Amino acid sequence: MSYYKILGFQKEPFSTSPDPDFFYLSKEHEAALTNILIELRLKRGLSVILGDVGTGKTTLSRKLIQELKNREDCIFHMVLDPSFENPTSFLNSFSKNFGIAPADFEKEPVLAELRESLERFLFQKAAVENKTVILIVDEAQKLNDSSLEILRVLLNYETNEFKLLQLVLLGQLELQEKINGIANFFDRISYKGKLAALGYDETKEMISFRISQAGYRAGMDLFLEEALEAIYHYTGGYPRPVTMLCHRALKELLLKNKLVVDAHIIEGLIAEDVKTGWQRRNQLLQKNSYLS
Hints:
It is a single chain. By secondary structure, the protein is of the alpha/beta class. The protein has 2 domains: 3-17 and 198-291, no CATH class; 27-195, P-loop containing nucleotide triphosphate hydrolases (Rossmann fold, 3-Layer(aba) Sandwich). Helix content is 50%, strand content 11%. Strands 2-3-4-1-5 form a 5-stranded parallel β-sheet. The radius of gyration is 22 Å and the shape is elongated. It starts with a helix and ends with a helix.
């Protein structure tokens, strides 16, 4: 039997998979999601979400997709790894994913032909059929200059009222510097969002939310306040490290045959990280201050 069922859960509460049902909407995440949906509805073109590793960008993208699935007027695709060698391979992948690749697959795709077929597709779907065509790019910091140029050109396709393609980029902080250096791309950003780590209260709420979503109904709290404080101090409120530490804490709860996660359990896990050198780089400061 899985550990979470022994503890009274119906599902694993602290999986690191980007399940939108377990996505805790902090004020920043909710604002980002709401703004993106508004931009998409108005067909304004380009939205960019930045955030450090572990701040919830990928899960936010899955929550966005969950919302879009409920809308019959949306056609969307998500790129998980935008590492393309050249513009032709990028556009060829783009076209195939939207079902508009050239019919002759034995023929080497030509950039100009791909652009023309894509422009016709966007005009037909967005202008004629009144659909919203959306491309979501995760890990967007991996986009090279040629791919960004392709996206800039695609954003030029428009009617007098709206953009034919809606583009959502989610990337790490280095994406900002890359975009800032391309003025004619930067100027096309309609919404700029940035995700940060959670505060202490939101960290507690996130842990409580995930426990509840997993079906835990017992009247007893699984994490003591002292444990929550230790978790926040060590992780800095970054959602992914919080989730991983909580998962380890629940396993330790069973191994030590305890009823609740206390500070001692968390301190033991932190000490193990420190001893083995597995702590994240940006946790070094927290670790040093915590153990001093």
